[in-house]
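ingest -> fold -> write
write: protein_1
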Amino acid sequence: MVRSLWTAATGMIAQQNNVDTIANNLANVNTTGYKTETNEFKSLLYQTLQTKTTTANAEQKPIGAQVGLGVRNASITSQFSNGALLESESTTSFAVQGKGFFAVRGNDGQTYYTRNGDFNFMLNAQGGLTLANSDGLPVLNTNGQPITLNGDYIASRVEVDATGQVMYPDAQNNPQPIAGLQIGMYQFQNPKGLVKEGDSLFSVTVASGQAMNEATNNNLEKSVIRQGYLEGSNVQVADEMVNLIVAQRAYELNSKAITTTDSMMETANQLKR
């Protein structure tokens, strides 16, 4: 009966992690570019109580008898389906339709990737403008370099087309592309293998594969950039609430298994009195 105590305990731990994941999804329901996470489980080792040949008269049996030792979390997987487009009044808000990621350069010099296109122009040391995210990390172009404009440009007049090409109006007020300035879009063979770094940033791992540049890889389906929009979270609140109820019920059932086992052991201990 002690086995049931440990088995039920693993179930409670697993469901607690499940509730933590659901709570994180609900907390980020309004986070730009957030991707919902799902908890996946797998069973633990099994103990063989009886093999298929151990009958009283040593006759062959069709099946054996095994009992499991509980459950544990196998993985927490991000679902990279597209979120809804939310209109923004900012001209430096960008939403991605497709599989692409924006790239930013971290303070440590490493490249990180994000679906959060809530960007702004900030003044740089040369008196020009640099496109950056809300934490001041520069957004990278198709060549992996920061998107920088000199001091002759006005941030509010900068436009970006669906391919990410940065443009500026000429004397006749017709948008003209600025050479060498195109917002970089990057894809991954296995985006679920990316590591979440916080602040809506992801980093590359062996599991995700190296970033593939949409501008140089013709085998990739090109993403579309929408200026004046942000990609909302893809969390489905109704689904998360149902999952929360299911997780709570599973937690209660495992708790009940522990109390039942405790009562049975108490009864067994009283038999010798």
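write: protein_2
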Amino acid sequence: MPAFSAAELAERLGGRVVGDSGLTLTGFAPADSAKTGDLTFAENESYFARADQSAASSVLVAGEFTSTTGKTLLHVPNARIAYAQVLPLFFPEPIHAPGIDPTAVVSATAQVDPTAHIGPLCIVGERARIGPGCVLVGQDYVGDDCVLGEGCRLFPNVTLYARTSLGRRVRIHSGTVVGADGFGYVFDAGAHRKVPQVGHVILHDDVELGANVSIDRAALGATVIGRGTKVDNLVQIAHNVSIGEHCIVVAQVGIAGSTKIGNYVTIAGQVGIAGHLRIADKVTIAAQSGVMNHIPEGQKWMGSPAQPDRVNKRQLLAIERLPELLRRVHELERRLGPGGDLA
């Protein structure tokens, strides 16, 4: 495992050392399992108290904490951001040697950059283009006319249907399918006639898709995921959906066809969004909400059917009062008696 001095880490993180700047750190671990030589981190006073009493040699902190046990502290502007920056130093991703595994099937018309890695049992279709530094870990399928920009990484068992386009540094986790048919049918003569889905999917730079995500290709045109957007596991994104830049889409979300979502939108777990809606920039949708209306910019919505959060919270508070209100009504009815006058 790599080793760094406290001073080296502080320089990389834009922080400063309080204690032994020459201290060698060889790992990163949570406070309850850290050992000598490890760095841990603390976001608040309670976490810092545990970290300071742990076996860790150093603590990554934001704020003016003081160790009572003599630990070396790395003071940084934001402990969680520094945590995200330091983990890749101690736990670098596996390095995959350039080249094509003998068991891979790569079309003669495909273009594979010499620095790319095509792992075991991968299939690369006609006229596909695999950019510099791309990694197909194993058993991945890249269909005809797909394009993978620089530094993309496909984990095992990813499927890209034909004409899918990936920008730079796109990461797609196991079991995900990009570009399957959109769910398009028209009722004709007592049966559901399939509407051919002839579009494609575009994933822009720095998109990450979790495991078992499904993104359907457009009926016409493109289904689009914007730059920097992160999609969690088990999400369904239907045909002709457009999601803007730097959005967060949490697990088990379903987005119906042709809905347009702006930039910096947060969609929490198990949200369902109906088709042909417009979700503006910087919207937050709470978990398990059912969205059936357009949402203006910057609003927070929740509930099913979803409403602005303040409206929904007032309704929830009213529902909580119902048992007491029913008890009081029952008591009034008892006191009024059959004649309707108070006893």
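write: annotation protein_2
The CA atoms of residues 51 and 175 lie 38 Å apart.
The domain at 4-90 is CATH 3.40.1390.10 (Udp-n-acetylmuramoylalanyl-d-glutamate--2,6- Diaminopimelate Ligase; Chain: A, domain 1).
pipeline exit 0
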